[in-house]
Specification:
The structure is a single chain. It is built from 11 helices and 5 strands; from the N terminus they run βαβααααβαβαααβαα. With 231 residues, the protein is an alpha/beta fold. It binds adenosine-5'-triphosphate. Adenosine-5'-triphosphate binds next to helix 1, helix 7 and helix 10.
Amino acid sequence: MFLVGLTGGIASGKSSVIQVFQQLGCAVIDVDVIARQVVQPGYPAHQRIVEAFGTEVLLENGDIDRKVLGDLIFNQPDRRHLLNTITHPEIQKEMMKETFKYFLRGYRYVILDIPLLFETKKLLKYLKHTVVVYCDRDTQLARLMQRNNLNRQDAEARINSQLPLKDKVRMARHVLDNSGEWSLTRRQVILLHTELERSLEYLPLRLSVLTGLAGVASLLYLLTRYLLPSL
Ligand SMILES: Nc1ncnc2c1ncn2[C@@H]1O[C@H](COP(=O)(O)OP(=O)(O)OP(=O)(O)O)[C@@H](O)[C@H]1O
């Protein structure tokens, strides 16, 4: 099995593309969903956040108030770093668990949906492929204004706060151009899925796990056949 990181810009079409991959039966892990999950009450990161930032970050029902926490770390690199040291290892652990489940179910590749893939760069080393969902700036602006009911100025501000999509395109191995009609994007997704499914890059991990299992089985066999009877 191998990992594919998918990213893009605000309103560039990531969720729409992910839906097609899911319709095609692909395994998808949404890193944002995991990030929200690991700070829920009962998870270790929840308690550590309260210890570090105080009970003022709690809502009445015990959930973390993301807005208050966001304000507390805004323009505070030390606090942001502290929060990241609490949450990132938990997010990675959950991702590994999910990935392992997909591995056991025989998936050849797993898509990690990571909006800030190229900004944080943390997960790049685990990925065999990177995919950027791109659309030209005017289209991105128009879709963002329409979807979020924003005026041009606010929509531009949101786009400008992100790493430019053109830079992400340069860093990615695959680009899905979502500037045009949806049917054209859908076709690109299907072609990419076919390419990834045909790739033999899933074999090394599968073979090494099988070899490991065969080794353990042989050892157990030798133990029971030759050592244990003499005890
Ligand atoms: N090819 C397309 N043609 C027309 N509309 C599109 C196309 N692709 C996406 N859209 C629309 O553009 C908007 C943004 O798409 P989508 O929500 O998939 O983007 P996103 O990258 O997941 O956004 P975000 O990260 O901001 O949540 C949605 O309203 C979607 O329906």
